[in-house]
Specification:
alpha/beta; Hypothetical Protein Tm841, Chain: A,domain 3; 11 helices; 13 strands
Amino acid sequence: MENYQITTDSNSDLPSDLVQKYHAVIIPQYYAFGDEVYGDEKNMTPAEFYSRMREGALPSSMANNPAVIRERFEAILKEGFDILHIAFSSALSGSCNNVCVAAQELMEDYPDRKIVVVDSLNVSLAETILFLKAHQLQDEGRSLSENAAFLEDYKKHINVQFTVDDLFHLKRGGRISGAAAAVGTALNLKPFLSITADGKLASNGTVRGRKKSIRVLAERMRDTLGDDPDKTVPVGIVHGNCMEDAQLAASYVKELTGIDNILINDVSPSIGTHAGPGALGILYYGKER
């Protein structure tokens, strides 16, 4: 069987038990508070990260490091493995391009090896869903090229619906105006956002109240699930340090869809920088975006 290793980045929010199970090589994404940079050897727990945000500290995020990409990929190539890499959306970061450049350079240095980069056009556990599907296909004996080709179509069906609890971070990121943030906060409006087919972030309406917003997230999932959902991969629920809300979302998903294969994890700090504490998302295989 063709030898290749499946890799991804830390924005995939791949749970630690799955990192260990698959001996996954993860390309780190970075974030910072002031001049202090985190994301590789130095990290913060999600609880600490979101606690600092709640206290008023404003983090920033940055792309991956080409030198680190090269170092981690080269170690795999030297062991005689090709690489299938699942990348964070190219529409939201330069990280995917950094990986593609490093891959091209390494294939020139290792002409007998192959690196294929799949631009997920997505975020967070949507990447994890692709990572798990890629491992399923590999176990079935699919070649690297066959696996990548399958994922290029499969990724079009990975949907993301999410909401945030604090409009300030959307305003800070330029997603909404200051006036809209002020009015929305006063009216207790909770916005919905989604990832488009081309991997960008899009606004998708509002409702009043946090609990209602969580219920509507699950309803939107049900309405876009399609007639033939892939139940071999989990539904992902990610949260910005609000586990009780994530568990409530999971209960709504089970009630409305009958699906109980649900994976819950924290939103990584490099994504949480823009979404803030209280962000909550549902990620799943459904109708084509």
